[in-house]
Protein backbone atom coordinates (compact mmCIF):
# COMPACT_ATOMS: atom_id res chain seq x y z
CA UNK A 1 0.00 0.00 0.00
CA UNK A 2 1.61 3.23 -1.17
CA UNK A 3 1.63 6.12 1.29
CA UNK A 4 0.43 9.27 -0.50
CA UNK A 5 2.12 12.62 0.10
CA UNK A 6 0.57 15.05 2.57
CA UNK A 7 -1.38 18.10 1.42
CA UNK A 8 0.56 21.20 2.43
CA UNK A 9 -2.20 23.61 1.44
CA UNK A 10 -4.75 21.92 3.70
CA UNK A 11 -2.22 21.65 6.53
CA UNK A 12 -1.62 25.40 6.40
CA UNK A 13 -5.36 26.14 6.23
CA UNK A 14 -6.17 23.81 9.11
CA UNK A 15 -3.64 25.52 11.38
CA UNK A 16 -5.75 28.67 11.15
CA UNK A 17 -7.86 26.96 13.81
CA UNK A 18 -5.32 28.16 16.38
CA UNK A 19 -5.83 31.94 15.99
CA UNK A 20 -9.54 31.53 15.20
CA UNK A 21 -10.27 29.54 18.37
CA UNK A 22 -8.17 31.88 20.49
CA UNK A 23 -9.99 34.95 19.15
CA UNK A 24 -13.45 33.43 19.54
CA UNK A 25 -12.69 32.42 23.11
CA UNK A 26 -12.44 36.10 24.02
CA UNK A 27 -15.75 37.13 22.41
CA UNK A 28 -18.24 37.67 25.23
CA UNK A 29 -21.27 36.99 23.00
CA UNK A 30 -20.21 33.34 22.74
CA UNK A 31 -21.29 32.69 26.31
CA UNK A 32 -24.73 31.74 24.94
CA UNK A 33 -25.17 28.21 23.48
CA UNK A 34 -27.16 29.41 20.45
CA UNK A 35 -24.47 31.89 19.44
CA UNK A 36 -21.83 29.19 19.80
CA UNK A 37 -23.74 26.95 17.40
CA UNK A 38 -24.37 29.74 14.88
CA UNK A 39 -20.76 30.93 14.96
CA UNK A 40 -19.47 27.38 14.53
CA UNK A 41 -21.72 26.82 11.53
CA UNK A 42 -20.65 30.17 10.04
CA UNK A 43 -16.95 29.34 10.40
CA UNK A 44 -17.38 25.95 8.76
CA UNK A 45 -19.32 27.57 5.92
CA UNK A 46 -16.65 30.21 5.36
CA UNK A 47 -13.98 27.53 5.50
CA UNK A 48 -15.74 25.54 2.79
CA UNK A 49 -15.95 28.66 0.59
CA UNK A 50 -12.23 29.29 1.11
CA UNK A 51 -11.34 25.70 0.24
CA UNK A 52 -13.53 25.79 -2.86
CA UNK A 53 -12.00 29.03 -4.11
CA UNK A 54 -8.42 27.86 -3.48
CA UNK A 55 -8.76 24.29 -4.75
CA UNK A 56 -11.47 24.28 -7.40
CA UNK A 57 -9.54 21.83 -9.59
CA UNK A 58 -9.08 19.25 -6.86
CA UNK A 59 -12.74 19.47 -5.82
CA UNK A 60 -13.86 19.02 -9.42
CA UNK A 61 -11.70 15.90 -9.64
CA UNK A 62 -12.92 14.51 -6.30
CA UNK A 63 -15.45 16.35 -4.06
CA UNK A 64 -14.09 14.51 -1.02
CA UNK A 65 -11.14 16.91 -1.13
CA UNK A 66 -13.40 19.60 0.37
CA UNK A 67 -14.62 17.18 3.03
CA UNK A 68 -11.09 16.28 4.07
CA UNK A 69 -10.08 19.95 4.13
CA UNK A 70 -12.94 20.97 6.45
CA UNK A 71 -12.50 17.91 8.66
CA UNK A 72 -8.76 18.61 8.95
CA UNK A 73 -9.65 22.02 10.40
CA UNK A 74 -12.01 20.44 12.93
CA UNK A 75 -9.32 17.89 13.82
CA UNK A 76 -6.99 20.70 14.85
CA UNK A 77 -9.84 22.16 16.92
CA UNK A 78 -10.33 18.78 18.62
CA UNK A 79 -6.62 18.53 19.39
CA UNK A 80 -6.75 22.00 20.96
CA UNK A 81 -9.73 20.91 23.09
CA UNK A 82 -7.91 17.79 24.29
CA UNK A 83 -4.73 19.69 25.13
CA UNK A 84 -6.71 22.37 26.93
CA UNK A 85 -8.74 19.91 29.00
CA UNK A 86 -5.50 18.24 30.12
CA UNK A 87 -3.99 21.60 31.04
CA UNK A 88 -1.32 21.86 28.33
CA UNK A 89 -2.80 25.03 26.77
CA UNK A 90 -5.22 27.66 28.08
CA UNK A 91 -7.53 30.28 26.62
CA UNK A 92 -8.58 28.59 23.38
CA UNK A 93 -11.79 26.53 23.47
CA UNK A 94 -13.35 27.17 26.89
CA UNK A 95 -16.42 28.72 25.28
CA UNK A 96 -17.13 25.62 23.19
CA UNK A 97 -16.68 22.95 25.85
CA UNK A 98 -18.84 24.94 28.28
CA UNK A 99 -21.62 26.15 26.00
CA UNK A 100 -21.26 23.91 22.94
CA UNK A 101 -20.54 20.27 23.73
CA UNK A 102 -19.80 19.70 27.44
CA UNK A 103 -19.47 15.95 26.81
CA UNK A 104 -16.03 16.66 25.35
CA UNK A 105 -14.82 17.50 28.86
CA UNK A 106 -15.18 13.88 29.98
CA UNK A 107 -12.23 11.50 29.86
CA UNK A 108 -13.69 9.63 26.90
CA UNK A 109 -14.43 12.88 25.09
CA UNK A 110 -10.85 14.04 25.61
CA UNK A 111 -9.42 10.88 24.06
CA UNK A 112 -11.84 11.03 21.14
CA UNK A 113 -10.40 14.49 20.51
CA UNK A 114 -6.82 13.23 20.80
CA UNK A 115 -7.47 10.53 18.20
CA UNK A 116 -9.26 12.91 15.87
CA UNK A 117 -6.51 15.51 16.22
CA UNK A 118 -3.70 13.08 15.41
CA UNK A 119 -4.70 9.95 13.48
CA UNK A 120 -7.66 11.42 11.60
CA UNK A 121 -5.70 14.60 10.91
CA UNK A 122 -2.85 12.68 9.27
CA UNK A 123 -5.34 10.61 7.28
CA UNK A 124 -7.04 13.77 5.98
CA UNK A 125 -3.72 15.23 4.88
CA UNK A 126 -2.67 11.96 3.24
CA UNK A 127 -5.96 11.50 1.37
CA UNK A 128 -6.07 15.14 0.27
CA UNK A 129 -2.46 14.84 -0.92
CA UNK A 130 -3.39 11.75 -2.90
CA UNK A 131 -6.24 13.63 -4.58
CA UNK A 132 -3.90 16.50 -5.50
CA UNK A 133 -1.55 14.06 -7.23
CA UNK A 134 -4.31 11.85 -8.64
CA UNK A 135 -3.19 8.84 -6.61
CA UNK A 136 -5.18 6.10 -4.93
CA UNK A 137 -6.29 6.48 -1.33
CA UNK A 138 -8.97 3.80 -1.05
CA UNK A 139 -7.28 1.84 1.74
CA UNK A 140 -6.71 4.97 3.81
CA UNK A 141 -10.32 5.95 3.19
CA UNK A 142 -11.64 2.60 4.43
CA UNK A 143 -9.56 2.81 7.60
CA UNK A 144 -10.77 6.36 8.22
CA UNK A 145 -14.37 5.34 7.57
CA UNK A 146 -14.28 2.67 10.27
CA UNK A 147 -12.46 4.90 12.74
CA UNK A 148 -14.71 7.91 12.18
CA UNK A 149 -17.85 5.77 12.22
CA UNK A 150 -16.99 4.22 15.58
CA UNK A 151 -16.10 7.63 17.01
CA UNK A 152 -19.35 9.29 15.96
CA UNK A 153 -21.52 6.34 17.06
CA UNK A 154 -20.04 6.34 20.56
CA UNK A 155 -20.20 10.13 20.68
CA UNK A 156 -23.89 10.23 19.74
CA UNK A 157 -24.97 7.44 22.09
CA UNK A 158 -22.91 8.97 24.90
CA UNK A 159 -24.63 12.31 24.46
CA UNK A 160 -28.15 10.98 24.04
CA UNK A 161 -28.12 8.22 26.66
CA UNK A 162 -25.43 9.39 29.09
CA UNK A 163 -25.53 11.83 31.97
CA UNK A 164 -25.11 14.75 29.57
CA UNK A 165 -28.40 14.00 27.81
CA UNK A 166 -30.04 16.80 29.81
CA UNK A 167 -27.34 19.26 28.68
CA UNK A 168 -27.64 18.90 24.91
CA UNK A 169 -26.97 22.32 23.37
CA UNK A 170 -27.74 23.65 19.86
CA UNK A 171 -24.13 22.92 18.81
CA UNK A 172 -24.90 19.21 19.19
CA UNK A 173 -26.97 19.36 16.02
CA UNK A 174 -23.83 20.20 14.06
CA UNK A 175 -23.07 16.49 14.39
CA UNK A 176 -25.87 15.76 11.90
CA UNK A 177 -23.68 16.64 8.89
CA UNK A 178 -20.87 14.76 10.66
CA UNK A 179 -23.11 11.71 10.43
CA UNK A 180 -24.44 12.23 6.91
CA UNK A 181 -21.26 13.35 5.13
CA UNK A 182 -19.23 10.25 6.12
CA UNK A 183 -22.06 8.06 4.83
CA UNK A 184 -21.79 9.76 1.44
CA UNK A 185 -17.99 9.64 1.64
CA UNK A 186 -18.09 5.95 2.48
CA UNK A 187 -20.16 5.18 -0.60
CA UNK A 188 -17.65 7.06 -2.76
CA UNK A 189 -14.66 5.32 -1.16
CA UNK A 190 -16.17 1.85 -1.57
CA UNK A 191 -17.03 2.62 -5.21
CA UNK A 192 -13.41 3.40 -6.06
CA UNK A 193 -11.57 0.61 -7.90
CA UNK A 194 -9.29 -1.56 -5.83
CA UNK A 195 -5.55 -1.41 -6.34
CA UNK A 196 -4.33 -4.15 -8.72
CA UNK A 197 -2.88 -7.18 -6.95
CA UNK A 198 -1.13 -8.93 -9.87
CA UNK A 199 -2.09 -12.41 -8.71
CA UNK A 200 -2.06 -14.97 -11.51
CA UNK A 201 -4.72 -17.66 -11.77
CA UNK A 202 -2.14 -20.31 -10.85
CA UNK A 203 -1.16 -18.36 -7.73
CA UNK A 204 -4.80 -18.07 -6.67
CA UNK A 205 -5.46 -21.77 -7.25
CA UNK A 206 -2.31 -22.83 -5.41
CA UNK A 207 -3.08 -20.61 -2.42
CA UNK A 208 -6.72 -21.68 -2.20
CA UNK A 209 -5.83 -25.38 -2.27
CA UNK A 210 -4.03 -25.03 1.05
CA UNK A 211 -5.93 -26.02 4.15
CA UNK A 212 -5.96 -23.89 7.27
CA UNK A 213 -3.26 -26.03 8.91
CA UNK A 214 -0.98 -25.32 5.94
CA UNK A 215 -1.34 -21.58 6.54
CA UNK A 216 0.04 -20.99 10.06
CA UNK A 217 -0.43 -17.21 9.93
CA UNK A 218 -4.11 -17.61 9.07
CA UNK A 219 -4.48 -20.28 11.75
CA UNK A 220 -3.04 -17.87 14.32
CA UNK A 221 -5.46 -15.17 13.18
CA UNK A 222 -8.42 -17.56 13.45
CA UNK A 223 -7.37 -18.46 17.00
CA UNK A 224 -7.06 -14.75 17.78
CA UNK A 225 -10.54 -14.04 16.38
CA UNK A 226 -12.07 -16.80 18.50
CA UNK A 227 -10.34 -15.53 21.64
CA UNK A 228 -11.29 -11.94 20.76
CA UNK A 229 -14.91 -13.04 20.44
CA UNK A 230 -14.87 -14.46 23.97
CA UNK A 231 -13.03 -11.38 25.25
CA UNK A 232 -15.75 -9.20 23.72
CA UNK A 233 -18.37 -10.89 25.87
CA UNK A 234 -16.66 -9.89 29.13
CA UNK A 235 -15.57 -6.29 28.71
CA UNK A 236 -16.75 -2.69 28.27
CA UNK A 237 -18.10 -1.06 25.11
CA UNK A 238 -20.64 -3.88 25.08
CA UNK A 239 -23.20 -2.06 22.95
CA UNK A 240 -20.85 -1.44 20.02
CA UNK A 241 -18.70 -4.54 20.25
CA UNK A 242 -21.51 -7.04 20.77
CA UNK A 243 -23.53 -5.91 17.77
CA UNK A 244 -20.70 -5.10 15.34
CA UNK A 245 -17.31 -6.52 16.32
CA UNK A 246 -18.45 -9.92 17.57
CA UNK A 247 -20.25 -10.85 14.30
CA UNK A 248 -17.24 -9.62 12.33
CA UNK A 249 -14.91 -11.89 14.30
CA UNK A 250 -17.03 -14.88 13.32
CA UNK A 251 -17.29 -13.86 9.67
CA UNK A 252 -13.57 -13.10 9.43
CA UNK A 253 -12.70 -16.52 10.89
CA UNK A 254 -14.95 -18.08 8.24
CA UNK A 255 -13.28 -16.05 5.47
CA UNK A 256 -9.83 -17.17 6.63
CA UNK A 257 -10.94 -20.80 6.54
CA UNK A 258 -12.83 -20.94 3.24
CA UNK A 259 -11.39 -19.28 0.09
CA UNK A 260 -12.99 -16.72 -2.17
CA UNK A 261 -14.38 -14.26 0.41
CA UNK A 262 -13.40 -11.15 -1.53
CA UNK A 263 -15.16 -8.84 0.91
CA UNK A 264 -12.72 -9.46 3.78
CA UNK A 265 -9.80 -7.16 2.73
CA UNK A 266 -12.07 -4.11 2.59
CA UNK A 267 -13.95 -4.82 5.79
CA UNK A 268 -10.79 -5.80 7.65
CA UNK A 269 -9.54 -2.25 7.06
CA UNK A 270 -12.85 -0.76 8.20
CA UNK A 271 -12.88 -2.76 11.42
CA UNK A 272 -9.18 -2.14 12.05
CA UNK A 273 -9.94 1.58 12.06
CA UNK A 274 -13.03 1.14 14.23
CA UNK A 275 -11.35 -1.04 16.84
CA UNK A 276 -8.19 1.07 16.85
CA UNK A 277 -10.16 4.20 17.64
CA UNK A 278 -12.38 2.50 20.21
CA UNK A 279 -9.50 0.83 22.03
CA UNK A 280 -7.43 4.02 22.17
CA UNK A 281 -10.33 5.97 23.67
CA UNK A 282 -11.33 3.15 26.02
CA UNK A 283 -7.82 2.53 27.32
CA UNK A 284 -7.00 6.21 27.77
CA UNK A 285 -10.29 7.07 29.45
CA UNK A 286 -10.10 4.07 31.79
CA UNK A 287 -6.85 5.39 33.28
CA UNK A 288 -7.56 9.13 33.08
CA UNK A 289 -8.02 11.19 36.24
CA UNK A 290 -11.32 12.61 34.95
CA UNK A 291 -12.87 9.16 35.14
CA UNK A 292 -14.61 8.61 38.52
CA UNK A 293 -12.43 6.55 40.85
CA UNK A 294 -14.92 3.68 41.05
CA UNK A 295 -14.78 3.21 37.24
CA UNK A 296 -11.04 3.79 36.86
CA UNK A 297 -8.62 0.91 36.32
CA UNK A 298 -6.60 0.35 39.54
CA UNK A 299 -2.95 1.24 39.14
CA UNK A 300 -1.75 -2.21 40.20
CA UNK A 301 -3.60 -3.77 37.23
CA UNK A 302 -2.49 -1.28 34.57
CA UNK A 303 0.01 -3.73 33.08
CA UNK A 304 -2.49 -6.54 32.52
CA UNK A 305 -5.19 -4.12 31.35
CA UNK A 306 -2.84 -2.43 28.88
CA UNK A 307 -1.45 -5.67 27.40
CA UNK A 308 -4.87 -7.32 26.96
CA UNK A 309 -6.47 -4.30 25.33
CA UNK A 310 -3.42 -3.57 23.18
CA UNK A 311 -3.48 -7.13 21.82
CA UNK A 312 -7.21 -6.74 21.19
CA UNK A 313 -6.49 -3.64 19.10
CA UNK A 314 -3.44 -5.10 17.34
CA UNK A 315 -5.18 -8.20 15.98
CA UNK A 316 -7.48 -6.44 13.46
CA UNK A 317 -4.52 -4.46 12.14
CA UNK A 318 -2.54 -7.67 11.59
CA UNK A 319 -5.58 -9.14 9.84
CA UNK A 320 -5.84 -6.11 7.55
CA UNK A 321 -2.11 -6.27 6.82
CA UNK A 322 -2.36 -9.96 5.94
CA UNK A 323 -5.28 -9.33 3.59
CA UNK A 324 -3.48 -6.50 1.78
CA UNK A 325 -0.09 -8.19 1.45
CA UNK A 326 -1.26 -11.68 0.39
CA UNK A 327 -4.74 -11.30 -1.12
CA UNK A 328 -4.72 -14.37 -3.42
CA UNK A 329 -6.69 -16.53 -0.96
CA UNK A 330 -9.59 -14.05 -1.01
CA UNK A 331 -9.91 -13.74 -4.79
CA UNK A 332 -12.84 -15.33 -6.52
CA UNK A 333 -11.76 -18.81 -7.68
CA UNK A 334 -10.79 -18.82 -11.38
CA UNK A 335 -13.23 -20.61 -13.71
CA UNK A 336 -12.51 -24.28 -14.29
CA UNK A 337 -13.74 -27.04 -16.55
CA UNK A 338 -15.35 -26.46 -19.95
CA UNK A 339 -15.71 -22.67 -19.44
CA UNK A 340 -12.00 -22.20 -18.76
CA UNK A 341 -11.10 -24.46 -21.71
CA UNK A 342 -13.36 -22.44 -23.99
CA UNK A 343 -11.66 -19.19 -22.87
CA UNK A 344 -8.20 -20.65 -23.52
CA UNK A 345 -9.19 -21.68 -27.04
CA UNK A 346 -10.35 -18.15 -27.83
TrEMBL record:
Similarity comment text for this entry: Belongs to the TM6SF family.
The record lists the organism as Rhinopithecus roxellana (Golden snub-nosed monkey)
| Transmembrane regions listed in the UniProt entry | 33-52, 64-83, 103-128, 140-162, 168-187, 219-245, 251-275
CDD domains, per the entry: TM6SF1-like (cd21106)
Q: Does the keyword Protein transport apply?
A: no
Q: Name one GO biological process term.
A: regulation of lipid metabolic process
InterPro entries recorded for this chain? EXPERA (IPR033118), TM6SF1-like (IPR047195), TM_Tm6sf1/2 (IPR059044)
The name on file for this protein is: Transmembrane 6 superfamily member 2
Amino acid sequence: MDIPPLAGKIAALSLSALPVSYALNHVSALSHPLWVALMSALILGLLFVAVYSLSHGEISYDPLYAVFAVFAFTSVVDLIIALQEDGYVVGFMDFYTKEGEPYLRTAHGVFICYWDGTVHYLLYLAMAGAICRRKRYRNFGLYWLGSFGMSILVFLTGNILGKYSSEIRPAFFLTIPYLLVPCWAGVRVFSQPRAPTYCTANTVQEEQRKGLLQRPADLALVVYLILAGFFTLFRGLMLMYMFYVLPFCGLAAYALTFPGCSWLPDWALVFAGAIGQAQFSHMGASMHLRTPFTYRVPEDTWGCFFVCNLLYALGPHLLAYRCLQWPAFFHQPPPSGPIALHKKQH
